[in-house]
Amino acid sequence: MPNKELLFGIDEIDQVFIGKLPYGSTIIIAGEPGSGKTSFAARVAYENMVKYSSKVLYINFNEDLERFLNNMAMLGMNFQEFINEGLFKYISIPLIASHDLIDYLIVGDIFVLMNT
Prior knowledge:
By secondary structure, the protein is α+β, with helices and mostly antiparallel strands. The protein has five helices and four strands; from the N terminus they run αβαβααβαβ. The radius of gyration is 15 Å and the shape is globular. The N and C termini lie close together (9 Å).
């Protein structure tokens, strides 16, 4: 990466946030089920690996690696190649919580672009 600012790898979003987020920032994406959290986070991670060879740590609270890989392949993103290259690390953390806590919790995806 030529500079030390976070780039999303999506031109329209980069134009809005350029220079506002330091490289290495942790980003939490939260929203209702089906709102596109996983697809958005995966696209940003994927574009950064493709364009900048960034290392990505992706933490998901909803699905295991196999399901993630299958879903992203249907969207044209082959994450397996980046796992093989050592650029992509996927961690699935199942949530265990009471029904009361779940009522107040919005589950999201987290990814971190790591310095190489």
